[in-house]
Write a structure and sequence with these properties.
alpha+beta, eight-stranded mixed beta sheet, five-stranded antiparallel beta sheet, 13 helices, globular
Length: 656
């Protein structure tokens, strides 16, 4: 069945038919679930910073349309709006106890803080349109900061005063003049600078059109010399400075060191030797490093323990903050310390989980009090969010796979219907234990959701990621099969009512899996899914136009000429005659990574073979849907699931 959603009259008729049929179809949840807009709410705190003296908290937040700059006392109370803008907001900084700045697009907002005689918060604003970026607020020097500029292939940092920045627009021909006092410059771009709290640069990492370069100064503030360079194609050459080492002159760096994953090390630039290993997970990469907001020392390494985002603190910093947390605070490796006062007696941390979209807390150590500063999606009922669990699966060749399962809070007798959801990519992506609006939407309507970090997924090491190469519709789907079979044995799962849903590569995998197992799934959903692999490799994707596209395709999928027969064999569009389950084909009209031609080709072949399908066109959406795109999509997706899975359990009460 082909549904044309292009006409207004047809759309209205379709809406009537769907609503009517839904009322007659038994639904997985009698109470009804979340509305899509509730789970895609965009209100959140973006950044929270504590003043050096610990008296003030500056915040930036958004409601999805505008960004806001607020100020409040550290102990809470009145929250004063300082500035609002539709431009994207960047991190904010305290320059001293009474002055902070925030960047909104090209606008820099300077604000002085005070209190009126009546005790009300008083904060002015001065908006400047300034080139460059903030490098450091120099917490040890009042009203002075480091500012970074990039001009004609040269990156430089400048020591400036707050007045220099405030008077920026009064300086004509800045490109031909000095801005403040130039501290250092290097002949490359996209520079990341490392400085001491007093503003002396000791390392930099930048790009020179061909290679990544690392610079180091033997003494902070001294001449910077190039100590390392590497080509992006040389995975073992990776070395990036992240902060100062324990020994003077040393660096904390990320590197592979002849291993398949990226770890954290102390490195001596003078001898070009690694002094010690700080932390190197065996099956994951260190992805980000967080710093002490006061001393700039490295605090923790962020990495993915399979599907869970982890923060491994250095021993010294872990003890530093473990002793500062209260009995009801999360463990230190489940939080992110975003900012603190100079004495670390007051700090802000952020935490999240599958049932918590994100929350900022303010910790006052002396009072032994922790208060909530704000939550993302503050109107969302957390008590109605379903927890996620993980389990290990052994694939057909013995490879260990991690799977994630979200089960509805209320499971009917006989078990919940199952949605299998392979992730996109497939190489270098992974599903994680985080808040996911789509998963929570489905769980709230009674569907269990199974995800699997199949071979090729990131977060498990280079060898695991490489194991996914040339495994489209082969080893990857073997891993999904193993996860499905293990999940199907659970008493709270009704695997006789199963649907497979995927986007991008996941859309390919959904149709390929249903072709592989015609009796397993009662329905299939492909969202911007690849349907014709040879077509994608030649001109059916913007990725095919890249200079190295054919090389990447050969490495990850197969040779478009030598492996043509194999690529046809794994392409859903050439194998739809084996399909028995109805298919919902969803695609965005602006997708250039997997253009709508893939969906059109699949629909044409479904028509040719007389297969049941529905088509949903999501106008003005690209490869990844926006919030509004998902809100438009999820209601129809749920009705499609209920149409094909709801009737399998007549004991369930009809839903709304």
């Amino acid at each position: 069945m082909s549904i044309d959603r292009s006409g207004i009259a047809t759309s209205l008729l379709l809406a009537f038919v769907i609503v009517a049929s839904t009322a007659l179809t038994s639904a997985p949840s009698a109470a009804g679930g979340h509305a899509p807009h509730q789970l895609f709410a965009t209100d959140m705190i973006l950044w929270a910073r504590v003043s050096p003296d610990g008296k003030w908290l500056a915040l930036t937040s958004t409601d999805g349309k505008e960004q806001f700059l607020h100020l409040e006392r550290a102990e809470g109370g009145e929250r004063k709006l300082i500035y609002r803008s539709k431009d994207v907001v960047q991190p904010l900084y305290w320059v001293d106890d009474d002055t902070f700045l925030a960047r909104f697009g090209e606008q820099t907002v300077l604000s002085d803080v005070g209190v009126t005689n009546s005790g009300e918060i008083e904060a002015g604003e001065h908006v400047v349109k300034a080139l460059g970026t903030m490098v450091s607020a120099l917490p040890l020097e009042a009203e002075t900061l480091l500012w970074g500029l990039e001009m004609r292939g040269v990156s430089s940092i400048h020591r400036i005063t707050v007045d220099d920045l405030a008077n920026y627009e009064e300086r004509a021909n800045l490109r031909e003049q000095e801005f403040g006092t130039k501290v250092a410059e290097i002949d490359c771009v996209s520079a990341t600078w490392l400085t001491t709290p007093s503003g002396a640069p000791f390392a930099a990492h930048c790009w020179n059109d061909e290679q990544w370069l690392t610079y180091h100064a033997a003494e902070p503030g001294g001449p910077l010399r190039k100590i390392h360079q590497y080509d992006p194609a040389d995975e073992q050459g990776w070395l990036k400075p992240m902060g100062p080492g324990e020994q003077p002159g040393n660096l904390i760096v990320t590197a592979r060191r002849d291993r398949s994953t990226i770890g954290l090390y102390e490195y001596d630039p003078r001898t070009e030797r690694f002094v010690r290993e700080i932390f190197h997970p065996e099956d994951a990469d260190v992805e980000y490093v967080r710093f002490d907001p006061v001393t700039y020392e490295v605090l923790s390494a962020q990495w993915n323990d399979g599907s869970m985002r982890r923060f491994t603190y250095l021993d010294s910093s872990k003890r530093r903050f473990e002793d500062l947390l209260g009995a009801d605070d999360p463990p230190v490796d489940q939080i992110v310390v975003e900012a603190s006062s100079a004495g670390r007696k007051r700090f802000v941390y952020w935490t999240s989980s599958p049932t918590e979209p994100g929350a900022h807390y303010f910790r006052d150590v002396d009072r032994d009090e922790t208060r909530l500063v704000g939550r993302s999606m503050r109107d969302l009922d957390r008590d109605r969010l379903a927890p996620m669990t993980t389990f290990q699966v052994e694939s057909t060749d013995g490879l260990q796979i991690e799977a994630l399962l979200t089960v509805p809070l209320e499971v009917p007798q006989g078990g919940a219907p199952l949605v299998v959801m392979p992730h996109g990519g497939p190489i270098g992506h992974h599903d994680s234990q985080r808040f996911d609006p789509m998963i929570q939407y489905l769980a709230s309507w009674g569907f269990a959701v199974l995800q699997a970090n199949y071979r090729g997924s990131s977060g498990y090491g280079e060898d695991f990621q490489k194991a996914g190469r040339k495994q489209w519709a082969r080893g990857i789907e073997d891993d999904l099969d193993a996860a499905f079979e293990q999940t199907a044995s659970r008493p709270d799962i009704d695997a006789s009512r199963a649907c497979i849903i995927g986007g991008r590569y996941g859309g390919f995998s959904a149709v390929a899996s249903a072709i592989r197992h015609p009796k397993r799934f009662q329905c299939v959903v492909s969202i911007n899914g690849v349907s014709d692999v040879p077509f994608m490799m030649w001109d059916g994707s913007d990725a095919a136009s890249a200079s190295n596209a054919k090389q990447i395709f050969r490495q990850l999928i197969g040779d478009p000429v030598e492996d043509y027969d194999h690529l046809v064999e794994i392409s859903p569009v050439y194998n739809v005659e084996a399909l028995e389950a109805p298919v919902l084909v969803v695609y965005g009209t602006w997708d250039i990574r997997v253009p709508r031609d893939h969906s059109h080709r699949l629909i044409a072949m479904l028509d040719l073979h007389g297969k049941e399908y529905e088509e949903m066109i999501v106008h003005r959406e690209g490869h990844s849907f926006s919030r509004n795109g998902w809100i438009r999509t999820l209601g129809n997706l749920r009705r499609f699931l209920e149409k094909h899975l709801g009737d399998a359990s007549p004991s369930l009460a009809a839903g709304p």
